[in-house]
Amino acid sequence: MVEDSDSDVEAIGRALGRSHPGLEVEFFRSGAEALPRLAHAHPRLMLLDLNMPGESGLDLIRQVRADPALAGLTLVVFTSSEEPAEADACYAAGADSYIYKPLNFALFQSVLSQTLDYWLSRPASGNVARTVVPPSGESSAQT
Questions:
Q1: For the whole model, what pTM was predicted?
Q2: Predicted confidence (pLDDT) at residue 95 exceeds the cutoff of 80
Q3: In whole angstroms, what is the distance from residue 85 CA to residue 91 CA?
Q4: Burial environment of residue 73 by CB neighbours within 10 A (0 to 12, 13 to 18, 19 or more)
Q5: How much is the average pLDDT of 60-87?
Q6: Cβ neighbours around 114 below 10 Å, total
Q7: What ranges in the chain are assigned the alpha helix state H?
Q8: In whole angstroms, what is the distance from residue 109 CA to residue 102 CA?
Q9: Mean of the pLDDT values across residues 49-56?
Q10: For the chain, how far is it from start to end, CA to CA, in angstroms?
């Protein structure tokens, strides 16, 4: 997970601890911090915030997709941004999914849990399907 907000790191940690207690999760505060670890850890899934100071989540997506060794890494943008243009830019850069962070913690936990269940149940291949979860978290549109 690449996230710069302390409150979001805490919320994500709590939510994942409840829904996926056996899941090994590493938190990074920036893409620059996460990139060197990716070369050695070979994770299947990366959740990342879009709007971070310095290098953005979009920059990180581009860097990951430019590295053939990381071709199978699933990239899920988990963000508070509801801007369709930002979602489009993330998909164009190679994101697999763009999920809005709900403000309500119960919904936040549910969306995060369902996102992990979905992507971890799929073969690791990157760019398999594209999903946008609207702020309500009630439905999704596939493109």
A1: 0.82
A2: yes
A3: 10
A4: buried
A5: 93
A6: 15
A7: 6-19, 31-41, 57-65, 84-93, 105-120
A8: 9
A9: 86
A10: 24
